[in-house]
Amino acid sequence: MTKYLEPTPWDKRNFHIDTFQLKEYSEAALAETDKTEGHFTIKVDPFADTANLKKYGFYYADTLIEPIGKKDKLKQVDQENIQFTHNFHREDILDIAEEAFTGGRFHRDFNIPNHMADTRYRNWVNDLIDKDLILALELHSSMAGFFAYQNDQILLLAMHRDYRGKGLATAFASSCVQEQFRLTGHDTLRTSISPTNPASLNVFISLGFRLNGAVDVYHKLNGTLADGG
């Protein structure tokens, strides 16, 4: 499209409008969004001057904090009878995902109807299943959750609602991290967590992850979504 706008087809399929992420934070890049119909995402330093974001119609969506963990620095928390498997029913994973991921930035975007945000996360998890990047967590032969990963990135970690609040979150996260180290061979892992999810952030910090900065995420809608949202 332009040197400033990068199409994001994985979002377009959910919102039925062209979607883009901005390649840089400059007035020239922001001005391109006034000339193009679509939904836009930009990530900026939390200390950046945001006057031009307001000028060009961008609004705050979320903040992403990046925890980083080095293999030799992390605490291992053991939990008996945890197993990982690639053999699972797709719908079981999707059911956990839909119930667990309801506070993401697209759910918080007042221009995106909740059903579209739900569809986006469902399609993302479907893609991860198709790429064989999800492992189910079993506890006593029952599906207790799942985690998704890619290279050194921890993408998603979710527990079934029946296993939440039982003091298992840290052991589950520790087991997932150690399994990812084993599968990928990386000695450093990283993830992104919104401060609206302090429970998850606290789990990673308790394992020895260190915070490596943050970015603020802003959105803009120039046009109308297909369903009038």
Automatic annotation (TrEMBL):
<feature type="domain" description="N-acetyltransferase">
    <location>
        <begin position="72"/>
        <end position="227"/>
    </location>
</feature>
<dbReference type="InterPro" id="IPR016181">
    <property type="entry name" value="Acyl_CoA_acyltransferase"/>
</dbReference>
<dbReference type="Pfam" id="PF13302">
    <property type="entry name" value="Acetyltransf_3"/>
</dbReference>
<protein>
    <submittedName>
        <fullName>GNAT family N-acetyltransferase</fullName>
    </submittedName>
</protein>
<dbReference type="InterPro" id="IPR000182">
    <property type="entry name" value="GNAT_dom"/>
</dbReference>
